[in-house]
Structures are given as C-alpha cells and as structure tokens.
C-alpha cells in the first residue's frame, strides 16, 4: 500500500488542534510505528492527554546519507521520529541535536531467502550475495557482530553485501533474484513469506539477546525529538508517552483492531499476514524503560563496538545526553 493511501487513513482522524500543543510525527510508511500512531489518532488518545499529534507518513529513502525521517527531525520539520539507538548515537556524535526520550521496541529484522536455498544459519553466509538497506543498517551490523563473536568470520569479507537504499527496493532485489538473501525489517517479512516462495531463516532479535547476554527484552529503537523541543515542550513529550502506553495496551489486547489495521495500513490484508504482523509487533514492543534498561542498551553497544569496531558502527561511543529516560519514567 502506497504512502498516499495510508496517509488518507490518518487524515480521516486528523482534526483541528485548536489550542492544544502540537507534536509533528514523521514516520516511514512501511514502518511498524504506524500501527501505534493510527491507534492514537483513531481512539483520540492524543486529545485525551492534552495534545495534538500531527502524523505524516514519508518514504524510507535516503536524503543526504540519512533516512528521510532523520532528515526531517534534523531540519526542524518534525518533532517526533523513531530510529535505532546506534544510528542515534552516530548522528548525535556528528552534531545532530537529537535525544532519545522513550523506548519503542526490538525493531530488528530477519534473514529471508528463497525456499530452495542452502542457507540455514549464520555459518552458511559465505560467498552469497546478501541484500541490505545500507551497510550501516543495524541488522547487518548485528549479523556481522554475531558471526565474528560466535563463528570467527566477518561476512562483510566472506560474502558480498549489496545495498538497496530502501526497504521496498530490498524486497524487489530478492524477488528479482539479484541477491541470494536479504536482511529485511520484521514487519515486511510476513508480506514476503506468506505471499511468495520465501522463508525466514532466523530473526535478528535472537542475535540481539545472544550478544547482550541477558534475557531482558532490550529496545533497539527509541522515540526521538530535538533537544530544543524537549526543553521547551517537556510536558508535551510526557503526554505523548502516556498516549503511547494507552495505544500499546489496546494493541496488545484487541485482535479486532488489527483487522482494521490490516485493511487500512497493510499492503496485504490476508489474515495470515495480519496475524503474523500482530504477533510480531506484540513480541517486539516495549512499554516503558528505566535506568537498568538503558544500562543494558549501553552494554549491548559496548559489545557491538568490541566485536564490530567503530568503523562498522560508525561511532565509537554513545555521546553523553543521548538517552533521557528521566523524562518519561513513571
């Protein structure tokens, strides 16, 4: 489903903000946060908490080397996005005035191949063409780190990574046979495996847990805003966090809501696809965090840095002030 069709679903629930403070949310049209954002608008959770959430969906193309949503935030055209915290650290280290104020979830992907393939796990990646959105994508970094830590090789050296530039192009590369496997993001995988001769070999979430050395579900992606917006609109940020919790609670409990999401926001409203995305979302999402959560995220980063190195991560430390958990901790 294209950007315009999905945006129309949101516009049905966009009303006049009146005197309410406005938070401009800019999110990818094929990213999983749109389910939560739609729920907030559909059920008026933003108004319930005293603010107006203005949602605009954008493509996942790159602008000047960064994803579109990142560019919007850095250019002052957005107040709310989500990206993984490795990218947040990288951009902040390069001078971007962005901060992570609340977790979203374990938003990684999986390795997808044609059904008829000899690839069964990490040790089989040698000599294959592996499609990635870009080489600094978290899925590729995690796969490289796991291969180096557990199997003593780096697939960047023994396989061929092929950059697609977007999630849509990545799927097309697999379907057209341009690559032997892809590291696709989790919400898109059911649309591939349920509708074509493809299978998921392994989820990257398993690698996150192995590398972190903990059973605690760690968020990989967080919600971001600018330092200026956080300083000037702290209460609006807190109100979003409360609306987010309300939406998560409903999405975890209400199966009927997912049927509506399938009809309005998904390319395929096949019940099997919708159910797979629903279950994956519920397993991925993180309602809240605390300082212990942040410590775990920092430990995972340190482990990735040790295994993959600063060149692979694009940053050698998480800059001070990247995480602001005290803003939204209950």
UniProtKB/TrEMBL annotation:
The organism's place on the tree of life at top rank: Archaea
Record InterPro entries: SsuA/THI5
SsuA/THI5-like domain residues: 37-254
Endpoints of the signal sequence: none
Residues covered by region (Disordered): 1-20
Official protein name in the record: NitT/TauT family transport system substrate-binding protein
């Amino acid at each position: 489903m294209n950007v315009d069709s999905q945006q129309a679903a949101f516009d049905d629930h966009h009303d006049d903000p009146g005197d309410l403070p406005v938070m401009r949310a800019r999110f990818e049209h094929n990213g999983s946060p749109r389910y939560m954002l739609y729920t907030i608008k559909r059920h008026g959770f933003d108004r319930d908490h005293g603010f107006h959430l203005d949602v605009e969906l954008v493509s996942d193309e790159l602008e000047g080397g960064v994803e579109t949503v990142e560019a919007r935030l850095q250019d002052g055209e957005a107040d709310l996005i989500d990206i993984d915290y490795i990218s947040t650290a990288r951009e902040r280290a390069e001078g971007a005035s962005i901060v992570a104020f609340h977790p979203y979830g374990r938003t990684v992907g999986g390795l997808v191949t044609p059904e008829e393939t000899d690839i069964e796990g990490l040790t089989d990646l040698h000599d294959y063409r592996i499609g990635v959105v870009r080489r600094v994508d978290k899925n590729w970094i995690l796969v490289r780190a796991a291969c180096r830590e557990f199997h003593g090789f780096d697939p960047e050296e023994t396989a061929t990574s092929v950059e697609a530039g977007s999630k849509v192009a990545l799927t097309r590369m697999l379907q057209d046979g341009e690559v032997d496997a892809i590291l696709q993001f989790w919400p898109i995988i059911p649309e591939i495996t349920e509708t074509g001769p493809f299978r998921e070999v392994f989820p990257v979430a398993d690698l996150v847990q192995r590398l972190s050395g903990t059973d605690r579900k760690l968020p990989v992606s967080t919600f971001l805003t600018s330092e200026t917006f956080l300083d000037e609109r702290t209460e609006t940020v807190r109100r979003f966090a409360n609306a987010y919790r309300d939406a998560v609670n409903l999405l975890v409990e209400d199966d009927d809501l997912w049927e509506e999401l399938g009809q309005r926001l998904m390319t395929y409203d096949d019940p099997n696809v919708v159910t797979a995305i629903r279950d994956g979302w519920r397993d991925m999402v993180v309602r809240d965090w605390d300082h212990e959560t942040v410590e775990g995220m920092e430990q995972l980063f340190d482990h990735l840095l040790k295994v993959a190195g600063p060149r692979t991560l694009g940053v050698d430390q998480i800059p001070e002030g990247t995480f602001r958990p005290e803003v939204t901790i209950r």
